[in-house]
Design brief:
The chain has a 24-stranded antiparallel beta barrel. A 7-stranded mixed beta sheet has the order 7-3-6-5-4-9-8, sandwiched between helices. It has a 4-stranded antiparallel beta sheet with strand order 20-19-22-23, with no helix packed on it. The relative contact order is 0.07. The longest helix has 21 residues, at 12-32. The two termini are 39 Å apart. It is 7% helix and 54% strand. With 844 residues, the chain is mostly beta strands. The protein is globular. This is Fimbrial biogenesis outer membrane usher protein.
Amino acid sequence: MGRSRSGIPQTPDVVRGLRFWTGGIVVLAGAFAGQVAQAQESSPRTGESLILIVPELPANQINPSGRSVVLTAPIMDGEVYLGDATLTLGADGSASFSAARLLALLEPRLTAQADEMLLSRLAANGRLTSTDLAGAGITIRYNPRTLQVEMDIAPSSRAASVIGLGAALGRTVNYMEPARFSAYLNVRGSVDWVQQGEDDADEGVSAPVMFIDGAARWKGVVLEGELNLQPDAPGADYQRRGTRLVYDDRKHLVRWSAGDQLTVAYGFQSAPEIAGLGVSRRYSILDPQTVIRPRGSRSFQLDRRSMVEVRINGQLVRRIELDPGTFDLQDFPFAQGANNVELTITDDSGRTERANFNIFLDQAQLAEGLSEFAFYAGALAPLGFHGPVYSDTPAFSGFYRRGISDRLTLGANLQVDTHGWMGGGEVVLATPFGSLAGLASASHVEDVGGGWAGLLNFQRTFASGGISADTLTLSVEARSKDFAPIGIRVPENPYSLIVGASYGRSLTYDLYAGIDARYSQGRGDEPDVQSLRGMVSWNIAPNLSFTGDLTYEKDSRGTNLGTLLSLTYRLGRRSSLRSDFDSRYDRARVSYQTFGGTGLVSYTLNADVEHSDIGTGASVNANYYGNRAELGFSHFGIFERDLGASTGQRSSLRFGTSLAVADGAVTVGRPIYDAFALVKAHRAIRDNEILVDPTGDSAAASTGALGTALQPSLSSYSDRSLIISAPEAAINLDLGQGAFRLFPPYRAGYLLTVGSDYNVSATGRLLDAAGQPVSLVSGTARELDHLDREPLALFTNRDGRFGLVGLAPGPWRIELVGEEGAAYEIEIPADAEIVQLGEVRPVR
């Protein structure tokens, strides 16, 4: 929703109403005052192809002026507003406007056959008529009551419309542009103070440890790196963890990287430390708002305007009113497992139809045609004392997965270095009985030999409606003795076979129960391991919950039967108290946690006491979140049994802050995790505190004494609205946008300026050429240096006095309605808040 300078929300209904009254004034003026000649300048040019609408009413009811009238009219498809067109009303009651404009508005709504028919008629005749449109299944008319062109399109002539049922509805959004250059540097640190240790040498204040990371972004290329610092500490006093260049190709959804790679593994792969080049596509990082799982798609046709409801597993996910036409429902928000989908269609006559279908999917599936991959090539660079140790050992690691269909996903992976290789494949198949996934790999390690591994997994969810939902999972994994991914010189596979099964069921809204079993077959001297666990979760009351586990284990230590019980009591919305007991270790713990506030001046606090056979431990951990930094404190103490003599005491102090730069502006704030926004107050409002993302009596950040604020928690490639407020600002101050719409690239920074020069108020008195007051007239004031800006409305009283709010320094022109040729010019001085203009006379 936009907002005019006068503060009137520009909703479609308001805009339509303004068009109605404006158009009505134009027509009446043409009929009774003959003042529409100027409008002829915007009429279609001579020779332009037109659409001619034959009148359905007498001419004097459509155009009572008796002459041609030009006005801007909305084009409507039923209740849907398509756009505006410059319409000419003939003296005979006909209406005409640009045929090219009509076809441009209709193209996305028509089938290819209907569109081609209209194009051929236009090419043959040089214009279109109501009869031509009727041949394509379209009726068109001009409505003189609403001053708009109305159309009805037959369902058979409409192109299939896609209705997304997920969170994204496909709307066009104008996002703010990120800074051309931005950078940040995070500094986190900690200092430990040991009051009591195992020996005297351990006691005292330790050397501080600092963790530094940062990134700089210019023209879409990001340079990022990480560093550890511990001056005056034994061993290395610094360690560079990695440095790399990153570029995201958003058109093809591909990330390119060069330097110390952050490798991603899949299946049985390891994540080797490689320095070189990388290319990857992972939707969770590059396009987190895209549903990559198989999307349901059902097509249907409506002959009448209808209400359509879509329910998945009994839950209503979308209700939408649709005009006649053909539609594809896509992008169902499926849950993992079985999905019962019910489509209910109720037309405007009350007739109801239902359609049902079922689809099974698994989180590991990809929709048809989608692919994910990651490939890294270079040299092994294991992390050493001072940073990566670059070797001359070449290495490659990668995987590729693709959705062959909505039911079948295939994948392959490979890792190679000079000491060995590992490769394999993947299959994920959705069947009517459940989801079946399989992994198989083979490997070869230098001086060891070949090996193999396989995994088979089956999942099924029995969704029977209501509260009950059963989940069954079965898995089998097998490995040979010598199987290993790259980087492992001596394979270690103590178990040859691992079999597992689990089953869970929601018994009521407040009660859940489950059971799982696991068996591992030992290799050589390694004994077999068996385990069986039963669990229950019960919401006893709105503020009280219980969980319990009963376990049976048999391993090298023998047979053990144990229980794990937990009771949680919520002390209001922000605090809770929890008690745990584990019979296997005779361990009991009581813990308390709370938090206060959100954003600035907020805190978290956790404290617990734990007792076991070996003694008692007590700890407290607190964190404070300020505008420019995060602070933390923790203390841990160990005592003999039953809180006897102290045997160890340690305290830690932590801090975190950041320095951020965006297009020359600098600020300090809390640590940045991905993208950020630097908010700066305009000079006209620099004395007012600006709050970023205010919530209640707090906010995410504040400009404060520095005049700048930092929002450090923006996620890349995720839609975000940044709300701005200045609660103590004067009412006449122009804050500009009250919200900024952002879609941050990776590690991007924004420079957002709040406020503008349009904060000046002016009063004066308008006189005509004879020196008499201009009484009771309306007009506009337009800024001469920015003619593209919306003008300000102006009204005079009986004495010709007027007032204007929202002016900026510079020249302005005042023009009056009904005062032909009268114009006034005023000059607003710089650094002014209220201007007394005095008597203002026309310049012509």
